[in-house]
Amino acid sequence: MKRVPLYAAALGFIVFAGFPFYWMFITAFKQNRDLYVGAFDTRHVPWIFNDPPTLEHVRLLFGQTDFLRWVANTLLVIVAVVIITVALAVPAGYSLARLVGRWGGRLGMGIFFTYLIPPTLLFIPFSRVIALLGLQNSLGALILVYPTITVPFCTWLVMGFVRSVPWDIEEQAMIDGYSRLAVIIRIAPRLILPGILTVVVFTFTLVMQEFVYALTFISSVDRMTVSLGVPIALVRGDVYHWGSLMAAALFTSIPLAILYNLFIDRFIQGFTMGAVKG
Amino acid sequence: MSETSAGVEIRQLHKRFKGGDHDAVDGVDLSIRDGELLVLLGPSGCGKTTLLRMIAGLEHPSAGEIYIAGRRVDQDVPPRARGIAMVFQSYALYPHRTVSGNIAFPLEAAHLPRAVIAEKVRWAAELFGIAGYLDRYPRQLSGGERQRVALCRAVVRDPQVFLLDEPLANLDAKLRNTARDELKRFQRQIKRTTVYVTHDQVEAMGLGDRIAVMDRGKVRQVGTPHEVYEDPVDTFVATFLGQPPMNLVEQPGGGGRTLLGFRPEHLLPSDHFGDREPLHPIPLIVRRVEYLGSDRYVYGTVEFAPDATVIAKLPANIGRAIPEEEGGRLDFAVPERALCHFDAQTGARVRR
Questions:
Q1: B79-97 pLDDT per residue, tens
Q2: How far out from the chain centre does Cα B256 lie?
Q3: Which of A15, A168, B162, B348 could crosslink B92 through cysteines, CB 3.0-4.6 Å?
Q4: What was the ipTM of the complex prediction?
């Protein structure tokens, strides 16, 4: 019986966290006359289907917008940015934690500070650079710019993570038959795998939600990412296509939710390990 | 040293860490014989672990030479090629590998055939009685079991030299005694040169064929447990070994130039000794008596050096009738043969 308040609190959080998903779900499948009811109709219950559900909004999303194209674009950018971020941040974080000594921490902080400069300040100078490189209105612009956010943060993240893994294990591997280089290439990645997965999840999330840079650098509809294309195509003037907007949000959040649940333990571990020891 | 002998020879070894203002290892000469278990003993920060890590090749010496089995290794031989195996204090097990995966690790690194690896893993696991745990992960094992896994992994490499860095320090006191016994029996059985680092004098005395006592980067004395205990070369060795440590008091009439040293167990009631034993009387003024079951510690002072605390360790069957009240004067003495003299300035032993 002592656990009743605990369960009550947990239930409260479930409702709090789950409600947006529920709202997304019913809005995506409600008929328009069920959605847009005047404020004076007090008998209307907004959180249930008053009329039978419909696929009308989903059809609009897939039939009349480039949603699938945007999903493909987003995935392409994600894969490229994840590869770049892992390739740069993991070796950088590892070496800052292991090899540099006293300066490692200071350099790490310096790198982290660059992450604190907001995109709303940086997009103007970036647009000059992008134009100079001839990358305007192409996914290449995003693939080039997103790592400026992910690499510093993830370097710092990996650094904290590597510090929490005892060096003994790597030294043991050097005695057991590996060279320093072989340890870095073959042993260390396995030891810091949770940290690397954290980097992947963070990068994935960032690219999924980024809006400012996408809006600045992409103008053609067929080159947009999900986070940019959906509001641009489904908010026409002051008309919000709520059903289709919510359908788009639903279809993009499902894979994210699955990804997070697969890695949730390691994700949390990655953050806390970095936080406590780094 | 002959070519076949798998001893370790250390000559004038120095190590200064970057930014340090003194040598962590300061001119060590040490000759570790083939097949012996040598203990590096000293307080924390004395350089014993640094010395071990230089033998392993995990640290580069600032100066000096290291030979393993007659081959010079300090310049450019990496740890994996030195014919050594090491057990860390933390055991450094690979957390994502099972027990058998951990033991097999050095063998896989050497690209041995799978059947040979399996056979060696089984042999080592049976040697240490962990054959039943081969499929478990390190996090599912107790401290003692982890330590055995680490030893197994060291053994399968079939090294010329074992390097052990406080392998018992993470075990609880009860387990440590049995683990120490096992370790000693195991080392006798395989007869491999072993260098064992510890700060625990009981471990050092119990395990070591010889002990090298270290302090502030220097080896103070090398000898059998008996030699370093009974015949210390200076006041550091004299007070570092022994529980309680050797008593040091100024010699009466010596002008403060000489210290008199004697072990607490040699300070006994005068009438306990035989008539022919030449005695050095040390009248003790009692401050406190501690009853410890098998022994009693008598804390007190002596008249000729009132500032120093002197401890006498009495076995339960000796001096049962001594008065225990504070301020009482006891007629105690030390046999002449058990006295050591030290230079008060340098701490070095003065032989007579």
A1: 999 999 999 998 999 988 9
A2: 32
A3: A168
A4: 0.83
